[in-house]
Amino acid sequence: MAFTMEFTSTVHGVTYALTASPTSLELLGAAENGDIVAEGTIKLPPGGATEAAGLVRQALATIAIFEGKARPRVANSHARWTPDDDASLREDWLAQPSSTPATTSIRELAKSRGRSPAAIRARLGRIGCDPDVAGRLLTPETAELLGRDAIAGASVSQQSK
Hints:
By secondary structure, this protein is of the alpha+beta class. It has helices at about 50-65, 85-95, 100-115, 115-125, 140-145, 155-160; strands at about 5-10, 15-20, 25-30, 35-45. The chain has a four-stranded antiparallel β-sheet with strand order 1-2-3-4, with no helix packed on it.
């Protein structure tokens, strides 16, 4: 199956055009005055597009780091959650006033733990906390519906507070 995809983007007066096909990647960058400032072609072997795309992505991410334009990686990104981490997060979540917007509480908890807000939000549901309302646990019905169990030692009567 043959296909060709074209992508364009303009940054700082340079328009980049990337054309991707199963056998090649072609890049052309032209300044506003028409000068070619970037160009290149990568020829791909049959079935090699996925591997090549990964290598190009990795190379470009490294260049972005050197240029100081990469998003900083969260300190504990991909670190395993320990039972102590779960207990601490649960305790801190339940100490939040329900009047505080959940997004604000999640951002603060993420920053203090070196985690992303998405990681905190996902973990709250796993430990029996309602990620949509600060300071609240999931109801037993909601926890059951989501297939989540509260952390060990928390009884259903504690969850329904």
